[in-house]
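Supplementary Text 2. Reproducibility record for the structural model of the 79-residue chain.

All settings were left at their defaults, and a single model was retained for analysis rather than an ensemble. We include the record here because the model underlies the residue-level annotations in Supplementary Table 4.
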Amino acid sequence: MREFTPDGLGKYNGKDRDEIYVAYKGNVYDVTNSELWMDGDHQGMHEGGIDLTEEMDEAPHEDDVFNEFEVIGILVNNH
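Retained model, structure tokens:
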């Protein structure tokens, strides 16, 4: 499985390149083709290329929303 550091994940923000990846609980998801993620932005609430784990507490949906997306890697620390 592909490994992403926080800095590496940040390159997939939908602005620097077309792909939009986000992390949640250690998994990295490809949300590029979601109509809810346009140009790296999720309805003015979240940016692409980041770990959304802590931000999910304030989301209006449960974490099962990630079941709709493919896990393409894991998030690792870049010590």
